[in-house]
Every structure is written in structure tokens, then in C-alpha cells.
Fold Acyl-CoA thioester hydrolase/BAAT C-terminal domain-containing protein.
Amino acid sequence: MATGQFVSARRIQQADITGQLYAGVGQGPHNGVLVLHGGGGGGGYERAYARLLAQHGYTALCLEYFGTADRPDALAEIPLEYFEQGIQWLRSRRQVLSEDVGVVGFSRGGEAALLVGSHAANVGSVVGYVPSGIAFPAPTWMDGIEEEGPAWTVNGDPVPYLPVDEFVETSDEGLAETVEQTAASERPGALDGASAEQRRRAEIPVENIDGPVLLVSGGADAVWQSPALAERAVERLQRHDHPRSVQHRTFPEAGHAIRVPYRLDGEVDPDEKHRFGGTHAANARASAQAWAATLQVLREGLGEQADSRHHTHGRR
């Protein structure tokens, strides 16, 4: 561990990828980690998280997939191949070991992490914070999305998704307003309202992930049912006898904002409720414990590469 050292950050603005690269401290080359923001867009907490990964010896790329220059304006029809390009670009850096990388995502980025791990080669660990094992649609509360459709595509085809608008009332004013207008217990969930066939079609094929999986959820999540949504992925992995470790860490008093460890999320009073569920103190405790579990899973999936530069791991 090399915490406290200076972390070099570089803006990446290319035709094929956009993001922020944080170089791992200490003698390299280092294992690489792709970090994926949530539905709020990039440029926020995920950069602080990536910087902390770099202080622990990982070279981390915050890959921005919508809402920035040269990328789509909204979370709609995002090609999974874009994330694969990010993986291969990261692997090609001189300071990165050219084997598998880890993928860590938050919320819709956690959903993306499971999708990427299920479809892409060279993914050695997958970590999803308040993720979903079921694909969701493009969010109609987001500017630029007039009607429900696929959030993701693969090989040009829509990724099947769980319909939301027929089951959940949303606000045209954005996610925060949708959450704040009604308590989570009063909002019907798409997971509860959808038919078994609709849920089955939208399940992410997580059995294709070639590495350990860690999912983190909050029992007081006010955005979506992250414990149940994460558990769908766990159950599918178990049905397919996934050969690597599978963990689902649920924090009953935490909400949706389980993110960067060792800091409160923007409020002075730790006992105050966060707008996305849980108290700031509960979210901070969950973030610290989830961080420790994340480092363990990254070591499990990627750590052996430091001892074997010629190790080959990946499905294709």
C-alpha cells in the first residue's frame, strides 16, 4: 500500500475513449482497473475512488460513457463494445500489466460492470456497488430521453431490459426529484411489478464472468432495490456453479450512496439522512467496509498477474 503519495492524473480525450487516467504509485507496471460512473454522469466521486485505487498501486481509468464531449448525451444505446475499447486501451499502456483488468462500477455503472464482465474478454474481477443483475432501460427522467428504450447495445442489438415506466412513477425533473417526491416504500418497484418472463429476459448472463464477483448493496437504498437486484446476479451465478468467489455484502442501514471510503458524503451531520437513502454515517461505514472487500477481490482476480507476466486468462 502506498497511500498518501502523489497520484498523476491525465485527461484522455480520444476518438474511441473518453475519461481520466490515474497512474498507480510505486514501481510498475501495475494491474489496471476500469471505473464506471453511475447515471448521474462522470466527473464526480468515481474520480476520487480511482485516485484511491492508484494510491494502492492500481492504474485506474474512469471511463466516461455519456454526457461528455464525443460521447452520447444520455444513457441510451451505449455500445458494450465501447467498454471493451476502454479495457484494451488500458491494457496497452506501458504502466499496466497486459493481462486482465478489474471493473468497478457504481449504480448504473455497476449494472454496466456486470454486463461488461459477461461479454468482454480480459476481465479478471468485477465489483458492483448498488448494482443490478437485471438490465434496466434508458431512464426517461434524464434530459434527451423522451421514451423508454435500451440503455445498452451489444453487436448493434439492444440489450433486453426490464420495463420501468409502466410500474414506477418518475419525475421529468430528474432522479433526485423522483426519489424525493415519494418514499421508496411507497413507490412500486419495476422488479415487483414485472412478470417472471420480463425479469428472466432482462437478466444479465453473469455466468460468463471469468473471475471473482463482489456486489455491494444498501438495505435503505431509496433509488432502486439494490439488495434484490444484486441478489438476482448472485442466484444466477450460483445456479451455474460459478467457479470463483461470489460475495454479496448488504448493509441494512446504508442507502444508494455507498462510494468513496473514509469520508462523509457532503454533509456535516453524520446522522442526517442522505437523499438517496440511509444516513451519512451508515453510508460512510458501508463505504469503508466495501472498500476493504473490493481490494480483496481485486487481489484475488488480478494479484497473481504480478508474479506471472505471461499468464493468460480470458475466454477469447
Observations:
- The two ends are 32 Å apart (CA to CA).
